[in-house]
Amino acid sequence: MNKVSVTAANEAQRAAWLGGRLPEVERVRPGLWSIPVPIPINPLRYVLVYALEVPDGVVIIDAGWNTEEAYGALVAGLATAGYAITDVKAVLVTHIHPDHYGLAGRIREVSGAWIGLHPADARIVHDRYDESAIESLVQRERALLLRCGVPDMTAEELAGASVMLRQFVTMATPDRLIEDGDRLDLPGWDLRAVWTPGHSPGHLCFAEPERRLLFSGDHVLARITSMVAVHPQSAANPLADYLDALRTVGKLDVEEVLPAHEYRFLELADRVDYVIAHHEERLDEVRRVVAEGDGSTCWDIATRLTWSRGWEEIPAHMRRAANNETLAHLVWLEQRGMVTRVPGEPDLWHTPSA
After folding, report:
1. What is the largest CA-CA distance in the chain?
2. How confident is the model at residue 131, as a pLDDT?
3. Which residues lie below 8 Å from residue 127, measured CB to CB, with a gap of 6+?
């Protein structure tokens, strides 16, 4: 679901996004820089790394994928701001996904920077990125897909669809765990951690009350809605967590939102309201589809929902995401008694009896 419902903070950055170009390195505010770092083989194209000046260097929020192109772009962007990669003192990672966490370990090796992550994401680093644990995670994903009604051969293919992303990550255990409400000790900045689970279990935003800024990671973006899915490493009801976290950030006094993708924007509360309304519409659609095909699998339900393109046009690896997003909505409805599940191989979903 795409919709421009907010005002771009920088029209040139928005135009670059819409035009398929990499935006410029930008001095957003005194002591604050935005550095676009390219992402390979991904429609998001780049992650926006934010560099906050401190007396002895810079602290960055997110890092990018571990590729030579991404690393070179980050080094060049820091140079534009007047810094070297060795000046990075800390990497504050909003969440565990490769485009945010992938380069953190390499930056630490070069600069000695400490890496900060929320405990809920820190707990899943090993299983997700350590070579010795990946096969176990793939088999857990396959079991989940089979319970969703994904055909055997398709489940085998989809379960390992993300393994190749491991090449874009330098495995790195975080040095510091950042809890909800923590005030980061950064001279010249009043940065507060806001735990916003859903897109990942430990997703963090960072609020700067004095400057009325919110570094939103993937939690709130200007045009697209973040993926919220049930998977082997997710919370039990990630959509409930996500919607609660949206309401939390929607109450913050924020003038400008600095997301990890697309472009910076204003009107945070309006955007939050829109995203919540989008999920409410989606929940209603899922309920209707369950009622129309009482006793359907999650996979069958996903094939009958409205997507940005027809189901047959969705690439195979994205069908897994679509299935797991559908499951997140079904779980939300189940916990409120709006649909029921009959466990089995596969699980079947029903409209509750009157």
Report:
1. 67
2. 83
3. 133, 136, 137, 233
Nearest Cα neighbor of 196 from 265, 134, 249 is 249
The dihedral of CA 127, 123, 215, 268: what is its sign? positive
Distances (CA, A) of 194 to 56, 203, 330: 25, 9, 27
Q: What angle do CA 81, 82, 88 make, to 5 degrees?
A: 85
Q: Are 299 and 321 in contact (CB under 8 A)?
A: no
Yes or no: say if 245 and 219 are a contact pair by the CB < 8 Å rule.
yes
CA distances from 217 to 48, 75, 253, 317 (A): 9, 21, 17, 23
Mean pLDDT of the chain: 94
Residue recorded with tokens 């940005």: 308
Q: Is residue 238 within 8 Å of 244, Cβ to Cβ?
A: no
How far apart (Å, rounded) are the C-alpha atoms in residues 138 and 233?
Answer: 11
Q: What is the three-class DSSP state of 238?
A: helix
Residues 186, 188, 192, 193: what is their CA dihedral angle, to the nearest 10 degrees? Answer: -40
Alpha helices in 6-62 (DSSP H): 11-18
Residue 2 pLDDT > 60: no
Residue 349 has pLDDT above 80, yes or no: yes
Closest CA to 60 of 81, 41, 44, 40: 81
pLDDT score of 14: 96
pTM of the model: 0.95
Residues 173-197 have pLDDT tens digits of 999 999 999 999 999 999 999 999 9
Q: Is the pLDDT of residue 1 over 80?
A: no
Which residues lie closer than 8 Å to 121 by C-beta, 6 or more apart?
A: 93, 95, 96, 200, 201, 202, 203
The answer to whether the beta carbons of residues 58 and 78 sit under 8 Å apart is yes
Q: Are 206 and 184 in contact (CB under 8 A)?
A: yes
Crossing angle of helices 268-292 and 316-335, in 10° steps, is: 90
